Amino acid sequence: MKLALIRQRYAQDGGAERFVARAIEALRGESFALTLVTREWTQGQGFAVLSCDPFYLGRTWRDWSFARCVCRRLAEKRFDLVQSHERVSCCDVYRAGDGVHREWLVQLARARGSLGRLGLRLNPYHRYTMRAERRLFESPQLKAVICNSRMVRDEILGYFRIDTGKLHVIYSGVDVSAYHPDLKRHRAEVRARYGIPEQVPLFLFVGSGFERKGVATLVEAMALLPQDAHALIVGRDKHIARFVQRANRLGLDKRILFLGRQADVKPFYGAADALVLPTLYDPFPNVALEAMAAGLPLVTSHKSGAAELLVEGKNGFVCDALDRVALAGHMAALCEPQTASRMGGAARELGQSLSDEKMKQRMMALYHDLVGTVQSSTSVSA
């Protein structure tokens, strides 16, 4: 069975890229011949690589030129299934890991002023992406869409003309042996490294792209919490200085530490009492799964796909991404050690139910169904 996977670039800390890596691992040894179609892939073995790296300037040209190259190269070869993690219209299966761009712009506009909203409407990249998205979802070649949350499935149905039967909700998986409450063995060492007393409440944020992931709201909520509450911000952002200055102006320079990108986030899960991710829009953040599997309760927003799995007050809390008062209230509840511990135990149970193995089983079932359909239609036409 010949399967092509399309992903433009691999970044070690990218959630979509981690899903591709997991999918490759899951499919290896399952009688699949894998080909990765990409501009650049820096890790992995056991698959062929089909390079598509045309020249470009700017992100609009980047995405357009890659999509054009991919469709040309695929037309020259034969695959049983083509699965894309990019918005290209020549695929059989699309994993909507980035959600719906139109909905992301709706949520982003809420956090922007009038000039910012005008800029979103005039931006050529957003216009191109929305056109590419419509061509993809309404393509007659498209056989299945893998949605990583019910939220994304419902958004696709609301924006595009597509058969409901093509939409399959398959949650991402997590390595429940690597992300485990045993990571609390790192608690004392990590806290000592950053001068955080072991008994104080410590909130963790993990993610890149701070505007999208809600760091500004998190900083403002921290100003409303008791003076002993601390937060660690792990991740990268090209405008990180703005968020640091915002925290400093609120007198939080000793209580919020911006740590940048970390090669291994597992020790930070072990050190924290809860994960806070008040994201403007996130189809389903992998860090939410990792944190819950590690025994951390989750505080997130209504526009996070992870929110649909939470039971309020049992394993997490949900609020509007821009509501700093509600966010602070949820975080304050988790400043109580017994509450955080109880909810962390329930979060671990949820995390265990979403293992890599279960994701693999659902993916394999979908692939076999799709290939069986293709083979049947080929036999009929022959």
Assess the beta-strand content as a share of residues: 5-15%
Roughly how many Å is the radius of gyration? Answer: 21 Å
Helix content: 40-55%
Q: Which sequence of SSEs, written as H and E, runs from N to C?
A: EHEEHEEHHHEHEHEHHEHEHEHEEHHH
CATH H-level superfamily of the largest domain: Glycogen Phosphorylase B
CATH topology of the largest domain: Rossmann fold
Number of helices: 15
> How many discrete structural domains?
2
The first-level CATH class name of the largest domain: Alpha Beta
**CATH architecture grouping of the largest domain:** 3-Layer(aba) Sandwich
Major sheet strand order: 3-2-1-4-5-6-7
The 3D shape can be described as globular
Number of strands: 13
Q: Oligomer, anyone?
A: single chain
Biggest sheet: strands, sense, closure? Answer: 7 strands, parallel
Cα separation of the termini: 19 Å
Low-confidence stretches: 378-382
Give the rounded overall mean pLDDT: 91
Structural class: alpha/beta
Short synopsis of the structure:
With 382 residues, this protein is of the alpha/beta class. Helices cover 44% and strands 15% of the residues.
